[in-house]
Amino acid sequence: MTKRIAVYPGSFDPIHNGHLDIIERCRPMFDEVVVAVLMNEEKKPLFSVEERIEAIRGLVGDTCRVESFSGLLVHFMDRVGGSIVVRGLRAVSDFEYELQMALMNRRLNGRIETVFLMPKEDYIYLSSRLVKEVFALGGNLQGLVPEPVLARLEQRLRPAVRA
Ligand code: PNS
Q: What is the pLDDT of residue 27?
């Protein structure tokens, strides 16, 4: 039987508990889950793709593969043999963008389906953008971001405070 390989793509700059919640939810649904980290250096991410991958690997262990990709997601899907894209859907506001992507990906490759999963309610309002902003301004992110990621944020965003 063909393996059901799902790909969970994103920027993950940085990964937070909402992402981890989606990974945990989709892991039992498929034979293999590949977390695909977008190489988007032109968007000036806070963490390099290598740092993002290292952080995710440290958290997910060997429960899933973690790889980087550039170019079209559908081409990456072909390379890893994936047929399902997993995306988290937080609020109605996510829907339009997600619908566009899902339908375009299906148009580009009719073999690909997108599956949307809802994260735990606690993480509905969580985004990597807010994580960076709140952390930089001194807000408390306990329970929303894993400890190793908080440590990385500390090093990157508050180096002067530590010195
Ligand atoms: O975490 P993000 O930034 O919401 O993830 C967006 C991502 C990486 C899923 C999306 O930008 C993507 O798939 N980029 C790869 C380029 C591509 O395939 N574009 C066409 C999508 S229809």
A: 98
Which structure tokens are listed for 150?
């908080």
- At 74-86, the pLDDT tens digits run 999 999 999 999 9
Domain ranges of the chain: 5-157
Report the topology of domain 5-157: Rossmann fold (3.40.50)
pTM of the full structure: 0.96
Residues in the chain with pLDDT < 70?
A: 160-163
What is the distance in A from the centroid of ligand 1 to the CA of 105?
10
Please tell me the residue having the least CA distance from ligand 1 atom 20. Answer: 72
Q: Judge if the beta carbon of residue 101 lies within 6 A of ligand 1.
A: yes
Catalytic residue among 16, 19, 52, 87: 19
